[in-house]
Amino acid sequence: MSRTALEQWRNKAGAWVQRGLDQRLRLAVTGLSRSGKTAFITSLVSQLEHAGLDARLPHWPPAAQGRLLGIKRVPSRHHHVPAFGYEAALDQLSARPPAWPEPTRGISEITLAIKYQPGNRLKRKLNDTATLYLEIVDYPGEWLLDLPLLAMSYAQWSEQQRGLLQDEVLAALAGPWLQAGAAIAPDSPADDARLAPLAAAYTRWLLDSKRERGAYLVQPGRFVLPGEYQGAPMLQFVPWVWGTVPAGLDDRHHYGMMEARFEHYKKHLVAGFYRDFFAGFDRQIVLVDCLTALNRGPDSFAELSRALNAILQSFEYGKSGWWQRLFAPRIDKLLFAATKADHLTPDQHGRLARLLNTLVRGGHRQARLAGIDIHTLALASIKATSSGQVSHRGDTIPALQGRRLDDFEPVTLYPGEVPESLPDAEFWQRQGFDFTEFAPPQWHKDQPLPHLRLDQALAFLLGDKVS
Ligand SMILES: Nc1nc2c(ncn2[C@@H]2O[C@H](COP(=O)(O)OP(=O)(O)OP(=O)(O)O)[C@@H](O)[C@H]2O)c(=O)[nH]1
Ligand SMILES: [Mg+2]
Q1: What CA–CA distances, in Å, run from 99 to 102, 163, 218?
Q2: Is any atom of ligand 1 closer than 6 Å to the C-beta of 33?
Q3: Is residue 414 part of a domain?
Q4: Domains contained in the chain, number
Q5: Residues of the domain holding 206
Q6: Lowest mean pLDDT among 71-75, 186-190, 361-365
Q7: Which ligand 1 atom is the nearest neighbour of the CA of 105?
Q8: For an engineered disulfide with 107, which of 139, 226, 326, 377 has Cβ 3.0 to 4.6 Å away?
Q9: Does any domain span residue 4?
Q10: pLDDT digits (tens, 9 = 90+) for 48-73
């Protein structure tokens, strides 16, 4: 073989080997509303863009060992999924004064090409560099709350919702839709002009329960976060809670029409999401804001716990995962992260992680059985405080400094203790936890965002891929 031919062959072989080392990984980021998904993804991408330069990622070996060669944003393969608003988030965070990114409502995606030098000797021998295409998907955790609907008929779901009305607060808030529905006979001709306002009143009830009661477990989840389906007839049904219904009604009648829409919702939105998105996720991080729930009180905390258990069902592979007949899930690593840990002094971080661990333990057992690797940690995607110590009546106590979100005034405070297991009555009585919302840190776009333990999250989620 001539020298040039040999070189050509080598280059070809190199390209071939290169492709062999290149990988794709779909990392899904979820959590209930305001749990910190946008902040997490923004900071993660910012850390990666600065990795190898000035990012502080000591717990992520490729960054710590200087093996990251370059990271860039590349167009997403999934043209139907909206792009994650990374630039907009950076603009808000770097504004003067800085602002938190806007709330988001649906699914979005951002793809990064991470070029690195494999640490593994075998891989290194084959080629000097490898690329991981990391596809990060942001979707509302509320969508996972709908999974149980797949196993329910409209009549069963209606019965379950009727049960919720036993709760006095929820029943009092339900007045408008209960009255509107009571005026509709189940066997009267289906009329959108009556169903649309009824569904709107029911949606307001879901939103009110969320706000007034700190309720997280709102179903159907798309009613409060409809994404592109806002106003679609598929979202215009309510549970039938007004007594018995004559047999044999079809979609020409009010009851039958709502039953048909419930079935459509299940098939297209719930099963559709699991089939078209969830089935393609390789890794999942579930973000949990335990601190806001703790601050709101026992009802809200109990609700968060119930909602988390409902979310966990989606990861309970194995015998109990009845819904897997619909598709084959492939998530093999699941990280639960308690967010906004910068609201606590560092001595409390371990307690926060243990609290979250207690909350998800039921699901842990199930998922472990099925071989998913699970981890729990407390992190702050964007650290808005600095920690230190202050003297108080002759004692030295840990304290936080930051700027209050409302007025941007500097404050120094001791936020209190977090329970490390499920809080008991005594905790709620002496509730010493003071949750102050902080403004984002003053930050310049050229710098990596300050964080707590994002590198540990990266090490867990990508450790075996970028190695
Ligand atoms: N101090 C602090 N606050 C945070 C952090 N992450 C999020 N927050 C606060 O939590 C709020 C919600 O964060 P987002 O990242 O928008 O949460 P999200 O889950 O994307 O919210 P939705 O898009 O509305 O579902 C922010 O506006 C901040 O006030 C953090 O790391 N530290
Ligand atoms: Mg968001």
Answers
A1: 9, 41, 28
A2: yes
A3: yes
A4: 3
A5: 152-276
A6: 361-365
A7: 23
A8: 139
A9: no
A10: 998 877 778 888 888 888 888 889 99
